[in-house]
Write a structure and sequence with these properties.
The protein is mainly α. The chain contains six helices and five strands. Helix 2 packs parallel to helix 3 and helix 3 packs across helix 5. The protein is elongated and about 90 Å long. The protein starts with 27 loop residues before the first helix and ends with a helix.
Amino acid sequence: MVTRTSPSSQRGAAPRPITAALRPLSSRADARLVTPVVALLLCAATVAGCSSSAGPATSTGDTPATASVVPAQAARAPAGRQPTRVSPSATITAPAAPRPPTLPRPTPLHSPPRPPALLPAIPAIPARPAVAGWSCDQVVRAVNGTAARCADAGDPSLRAQTVGDGESTVGLTDEQQVVHVQRGLSSTDTYLVAMHERGHQELRQRCDTWACGDALARATGGSRGAWSSGPYFARVVEAGASAWARCHGGDNPRYGYRLSCEDLEAAFAAEARAREDHRREQAEYDAAWARYREAYEQYRRDYDTYAAQP
């Protein structure tokens, strides 16, 4: 009990004690009433949400029980924001575009126009003595194949051009690989002319690039320009045709041979190697670009997948 002097006692009044109605919470019923209130106050002071239906706390003996408070979680998203769920596809990075091949485009081999068709197959070219008494048509068909004909003197197909010393053209192979031979020659002369023209046919088929032409020019001691320029019989193309005829039984004394059979075969072999190298380079070039196109299509698909991410 705490006593205090009233102000009226200072004016002569008798002192009257004031009793403070304060008493301890001595009963369990009082503790049960206070505990929910304390728990609600503690929940309001923390960031953690608490249940409004806090039950009575337990106590030991006569000691009033205190409410247990659940601590707040250590990591919590800011108010008003929900945590963003990361899609597995969000880890895909932008794909890199493939690089084009660096292989140079193969240089075309054929400087002159390609022959329009392969040389007609001939089972076997007859020997010179075998054509004795044959007509012009029989000889040229046997030597030059079906793409050959005999023409009268002055026929436009022979172009009536002067080769040298006033001699007219008696045999010619045109751009379409057709052989024209003048009628009226002996079977032997017709054979020699047809064999020379067959040499031109062979060169068009087997020596159609500068790989062969340069080899023939070097063998004759000339330059590349000598292939179809200079004196008629000194041209590399004429030397090659006459050499082929001589190497296959059509020896014509009118020609001064400047190429051996070995030179001619070496030039043909150079042509074959050049064509094979070119074929391989072209195949590698085409394959490289085919792989690039396939990789680029895959890149486009990957990029579409990347761009479609949320």
